[in-house]
Design brief:
Shape: globular
Distance between the termini: 11 Å
Largest sheet: 6 strands, antiparallel
Number of strands: 18
Order of helices and strands: EEEEEHEEHEHEHEHEEEHEEHEEE
Helix content: 10-25%
Radius of gyration: 20 Å
Structural class: alpha/beta
Strand order of the largest sheet: 4-3-6-1-2-5
Number of helices: 7
Length: about 325
C-alpha cells in the first residue's frame, strides 16, 4: 500500500537529447547528493513549474544514482505535461521529483524474457533490456513504430543485440512492406515459462492481453500510460466512506472520485496520475466492496477486495471502510 506521503528530491534539468520525431530524453540530476536508486521498469513523478504532476518511466540503467532519464513524446492533445516539457522546460531549471516507484518490475529469474514495445512505450523496455544485457540473461525484443523516424533508441537497441541478429526485431507498419506485430505468433514461438512484458498504445496492449490470456498471470506484465475512458470514472452512485483511523464519515457524491473528497477534507494521501495507472493512491479496504476501475491491481487482488486505488475506483456497496 502507498504511504500517506511521498518523499521527493530536488533535481535540475541537466540535458535534453533528441530521440525521435516529437520525442526527447530529459536528463535530471540531483541538486545535492545522490538520487534514490531504482530498478528497471520504475517510474518517477515530475512536479512541473506549471503545477502539473506526471509519471514517466525511467530509461537509464538500473544502478545509476547520478541521474534520472525519461523519454517524453510530445502529445497532441496534451494534458499539460509533455507540451510544457518540450516547449518551456530549460536546461538548468530545478523541479521536484518524487522517489521512484515500480509497478512494472523485471523478473530477473525468468528463463527467458520477451519484451514488446510500441512507440514511446519503449522507455521502460529499454531500461529492462539494459539490465538483462548486463546480467547475461536470455531475452528478445519486438519493437513496433509507425516509421523509423518515430523509433527511439534504435541504434542502442540494435547494439544490445548485436551478437544475435534475431534477438532485436523492429516493425515499421507505415513504411512500404511494413506490417503489424503478430503477437499471437510471438507468444506461441517463445520458450516455455517465458515472461512477457508489453508497453505501448492501448490497441497493442489489448492484443497483448488476448495473445497471453492462456498464460499464468505471473508470466504476463503490462504497463499502461493511460487507463482509458471506461476505467477512470468514479462511482456512478453516491456512497459513504469511513476513515477507520480517525473514525470520520464522508459522503462521496455521484461522479466524484474518492481521492477528491479526501483531498477536499485535508486528508494526507499519496497520489500522482489520477487515472488508476501508477498505484500511488492504493489504500487498504477494511470493509465494503470496491468498484475497481484501475489497471494496476491483478485479477486476484481485485477479487480479494483488500485494497483499492481511490483516484478512480468507486464502490459496489453503500459503504466502504478505508485504512486512513
Amino acid at each position: 500500500m502507498a504511504e500517506t506521503s511521498v518523499r521527493s528530491q530536488r533535481v535540475y534539468l541537466h540535458a535534453i537529447t533528441y530521440l525521435a520525431r516529437d520525442t526527447s530524453a530529459f536528463e535530471f540530476r540531483a541538486v545535492n547528493g545522490a538520487l534514490v536508486p531504482f530498478t528497471a521498469g520504475a517510474h518517477v513523478d515530475l512536479m512541473l513549474p506549471n503545477g502539473v504532476r506526471r509519471a514517466y518511466s525511467l530509461c537509464n540503467k538500473q544502478g545509476e544514482t547520478h541521474r534520472y532519464v525519461v523519454g517524453v513524446k510530445r502529445a497532441s492533445p496534451s494534458r499539460g505535461a509533455s507540451v510544457y516539457l518540450h516547449d518551456h522546460l530549460r536546461v538548468g531549471t530545478e523541479i521536484d521529483v518524487a522517489e521512484p516507484r515500480n509497478n512494472f518490475p523485471l523478473i530477473e529469474t525468468a528463463p527467458h524474457s520477451v519484451l514488446i514495445a510500441g512507440g514511446i512505450g519503449v522507455t521502460p523496455i529499454y531500461g529492462m533490456l539494459q539490465r538483462l544485457a548486463s546480467t547475461g540473461a536470455s531475452w528478445e525484443l519486438h519493437y513496433a513504430c509507425r516509421t523509423r523516424a518515430d523509433g527511439a533508441f534504435l541504434d542502442e537497441l540494435q547494439a544490445l543485440g548485436s551478437h544475435d541478429p534475431f534477438r532485436v526485431r523492429f516493425s515499421f507498419d507505415h513504411e512500404p512492406g511494413g506490417k503489424m506485430l503478430d503477437l499471437a505468433a510471438i507468444v506461441g514461438a517463445a520458450p516455455a515459462q517465458s515472461h512477457f512484458y508489453a508497453c505501448g498504445p492501448a490497441p497493442m496492449l489489448e492484443a497483448f492481453e488476448t495473445a497471453t490470456r492462456s498464460l499464468a498471470s505471473e508470466q504476463r506484465h503490462i504497463e499502461r500510460f493511460t487507463a482509458g475512458d471506461d476505467v477512470v470514472r468514479a462511482g456512478d452512485l453516491g456512497f459513504e466512506i469511513v476513515l477507520a483511523r480517525s473514525n470520520r464519515c464522508l459522503q462521496v457524491p455521484p461522479g466524484k472520485p474518492i481521492l477528491d473528497v479526501l483531498l477536499d477534507e485535508g486528508v494526507d494521501i499519496a497520489f500522482s496520475c489520477m487515472e488508476g495507472v501508477c498505484g500511488s493512491c492504493e489504500v487498504a479496504v477494511l470493509d465494503g466492496i470496491p468498484d475497481h476501475r484501475d489497471v494496476v491491481l491483478s485479477a486476484e487482488e481485485r477479487a480479494a477486495n483488500k485494497t483499492m486505488l481511490v483516484c478512480c475506483s468507486g464502490a459496489r456497496s453503500e459503504r466502504l471502510v478505508l485504512d486512513l
